[in-house]
Every structure is written in C-alpha cells, then in structure tokens.
Amino acid sequence: MSVQEPKPSPNRRARTSARGPGRPETVDARRERIVRLAAPLFLKKGYDNVSIDEIIGVVGGSKATIYAWFGGKEGLFEAVVRQECRDVVMAIHADPAGSLEAQLTEIGHSFLAMVLSPPILEFHRLMVSIGRTFPATGRLFYETGPASAYSTVAAWIAKQQNDGRIAQEDPYRLAVLFLDMLIGEHQLSWLTGMPRAARRDKIDETVRIAVKVFLRGCATTDEPSSRNRP
Questions:
Q1: 3 state DSSP class of 16
Q2: Alpha-carbon torsion angle 39, 141, 5, 15, nearest 10
C-alpha cells in the first residue's frame, strides 16, 4: 500500500455535487462522507474481504469516483485510517482550564473516552492484524494516530514547562509515559475479550492515579487542588 493520498485539484475542490433538492454537497464533504461510510465495512469485514462493489453499494456513486478520488480500495482505506486517527487526536481536550491536576484529568478522560470506544477498538484490532502485510499503512496509522496523540499532549506539557509548572524533561517522552499509563490495561482488556477490567469506575481510578503519579514526578509547584491529597 502507498501512504500517499491523492489531493483534489483546486478546480475539483471548488466544485459541488448536487445532493437532491436540498443544499448542494461540496466535493470535500462528499469525499469525507464516502470515507466515513466505508469505515464500518473495513472494520467489520477486514481489508481483504471488502470489495469495491461492496463499497459502492454502501456509499453510492461509481467505481470511477473511487479511483479518481482515492486511487482505488487501498487509497480509500488509507483515507479511512487518516480519518479514524484524526478523530482520536481531535477528541483530546488539549487546552483545558484549571489546575494542572484538573487539566491532566480532562486530557486523560477525553483521550480514553475515544480510544476505548467500540469503533476505535475495532479499528485498532484491524490495524494490528494487517500491520505486517501492509507495513506502509501500519506506519501511516502510527504516525497519524499514536504519534500524533503523543505530540498533542507533548505540546500541552511544553506549554506548562515554559510557565515553570512542569520539570524540564523531554515533553514528548513525558506525554508517552502519561498516555501509556492510562491506556495499557483497559485497551488490552477489551482487545483480549476481558472488558470487565475496563469498567467506568476502574477507568476513573486509573486516570486519578496516573495524574497523581505524573504530577508527583514532574510538577514543580504545589498546586492548591493537590494539597492534602492522599
């Protein structure tokens, strides 16, 4: 698989396609709609078991459109990978308000809420299963998904470091440590068929403890909301 996704030309970007008697649908909107409609097919059946004809049956249009916009099934699947990863990263509340404890708690909950949602768990299963067969797509997934999430949190950490609130360590490495503290047990429990380990109360407890551990190791100030906590 190639990781290059063809970009619409300026003229194509400016055009719209009719969507019945209502408001016209822009080409970009239609393109995104195709990607989002195709995603459940890949998640349910896997990459190899989905045909172009099946995709057309769900998203409408023609094969010519799929090939012109995505280069075929591979390009469409790569667009699905990008969109799924983008959804996860965009769900992280990376600029919350409040104390360091409150901000980290919000980041943690928003991240886990998306990563542990059934569609994203199925997507993760799919990417793990095809990573060896399609290494380029595996790299695309890692770069636009996990690495991008780490970078988003690293940017927040760097901002706090500039304000003198978090110790001067590599912000990306700190982000990796924080997010990995959150995700490991709960994601693995779902992926291995043991979802009881990812109950809401267990997730809340993980976020609370991860935030406490992170701040005890990295915070340079004694936040008022953290004082006298056990």
A1: strand
A2: 50
Question: Residue 117 CB: number of other CB atoms within 10 A?
Answer: 14
> What is the value of pTM for the model shown?
0.78
3-state secondary structure of 21: strand
For 35, 107, 114, 129, 211, the CA distances from 149, given in Å and listed in that order, are 21, 11, 12, 21, 17
pLDDT of residue 195: 60
What residue type is assigned to position 82 of the chain?
R
Q: What is the pLDDT of residues 104-154, one digit of tens each?
A: 999 999 999 999 888 888 898 888 888 788 899 989 999 999 999 999 999
Nearest to 214 by CA among 128, 107, 62: 107
Residue ranges in the chain whose pLDDT is less than 70: 1-23, 192-198, 221-230
Supply φ then ψ for residue 136, to 5 degrees: -65, -40
Burial tier of 71 (Cβ tally within 10 Å: 0-12, 13-18, 19+): middle
Q: Which amino acid is at 148?
A: S
